[in-house]
Amino acid sequence: MSPPDTAPPAPPPPADHAADAVWGADVMAAARDRMHHEHGGMRLHQILFNLAEVQVRRGREGYRWDGEGWWGGDINRVVAKSEGEAQFGRSVDTAEVQLLYSRAIGPYYDLQAGIRQDLGAGVRRTYVSVGVEGLAPYWFETEGTLFVSDKGDVLARAEAWYDQRITQRLVLQPRVELNLAAQDVPEQRIGQGLSTAELGLRLRYEIRREFAPYLGISWDRKVGRTADYARRDADARGGAAAVFGVRGWF
């Protein structure tokens, strides 16, 4: 027999609950609310430092951090991010903090918006921050963010990294970061276009999933007009560094 042209409509979902007759409707309603809360409605939190390391490079040893924390559910979250670096024995060169509202826009990506504040030495700016963060195909972690300062400066940042699991505990993480500017920002020694680029390769050993020491190499470079500013200031334009640190979360 040939199938019918149109399938019959699905039956309506049951409006009654058999357990109500045994335990009572009020008791079972509270139990169902609790089950819904524990299967997707919970408020959770995490603090993660993807980078917390010492950098060794030809007499310019220093340290660096890059981490974030969040609180919320599967759809809506409050996110705080921070990153920066400095040389030992000197004040912090560059640092920033961000406070963001994060909203899931799909199974793998979140839309984030909020405020970024620059800290450390030099001119400090406050920015409006808008970006996306999530998991790209083939398990690449990605971030893309646009910043607009209180002076009208427009900056952008793109980051990506990938955890290649060699064994159940040994993980190789390549990482790339690009920073761009829509215009020259002389006060911050930033030039128009691609301003800095960084490539890194880190090998970590997960003693526990939450605690993993690592070592590796990082290469960064100021390019374009940003490199011109560094040259005029007799400042380093980048180079390679051996790194070792700890990746951790709780």
Automatic annotation (TrEMBL):
Entry-linked Pfam families: CopB
Any one of the GO BP annotations: intracellular copper ion homeostasis
Protein name: Copper resistance protein CopB
Molecular function terms, GO-annotated: copper ion binding
Taxonomic placement: Bacteria, Pseudomonadati, Pseudomonadota, Alphaproteobacteria, Sphingomonadales
Cellular component, GO annotation: cell outer membrane
Lineage top rank: taxon: Bacteria
